[in-house]
Amino acid sequence: MHPAASIIAFTTLSGLGFGLIAWLGVGAAPDAGPLRALVLSGLAIGLVSSGLVASLLHLGQPTRFLKAFSQWRSSWLSREAVLALATLAVFALYAALWLAGLRLLPLGVAASCLALATVGATSMIYAQMRSVPRWRSPLTPALFLLAALAGGALLADARDAAPWLLGGLGVAQLAAWGWGDRALARSGTTLATATGLGPLGRPRLLEPPHTGENYLLREMVHVVGRRHAPKLRLIGFTLAVLLPLALILASSGGLARWIAADVHIVGVVVLRWLFFAEAEHVVGLYYGRR
Questions:
Q1: What is the structure's pLDDT at 11?
Q2: How distant is the alpha carbon of residue 249 from its chain centre?
């Protein structure tokens, strides 16, 4: 699929913000003074808010964003929107009390649960799509949740948990690539099933359905060069997992932690771009493209 910059920014920034909220809500940074508490709380809210603003740019009609809340009973997109606002409201109250000297952990745990539920809802927007076999796997929610928790742990200085989460993210990412590279073939979807001409024989494309580009080709079909994909995977995996892991294991200093967090964020951006760019929508078969 076409990797729009707005959706990459949304999933990356909001994921980091919700991950940080999840850690702060359960008591991370216990010795933080008022200034650090303000910085961490402001960073979490700022990341989430920036991601939500980026998501508006991905809507066909951004002025109609209120409609995103109307189908929460059946739509993961609506559930994500409702949960995101609920998380921000609960965490804002928790942060205000924290700055006033009262860290009310039950309220923080509620904010943490809502934050993780929001990330889960975001991931399910993609995991429930039958038209993209690569995404239709429990590995998709695992990737989103582990990336959020690992990034949040780096920002919140949860040093004991960060290495394990980075390792878990690495394992999940490798598993997702192994699963995803065979998902379309394993789904049984072919040009015959895409066109409905299977009962008549084995069809092949003589001419494309359109002489020029259209919406489906622009948004649903994107081909990553075979030589570029392995390089981008290596770059993203190294920056998101290997380098941050090496930095936090080699040094316990604050500078190393912040460098690790910055490197991790860049790596997540690369991996998230690949998440969308490598997704093979079955409509590509109709146009003779994979």
A1: 93
A2: 25
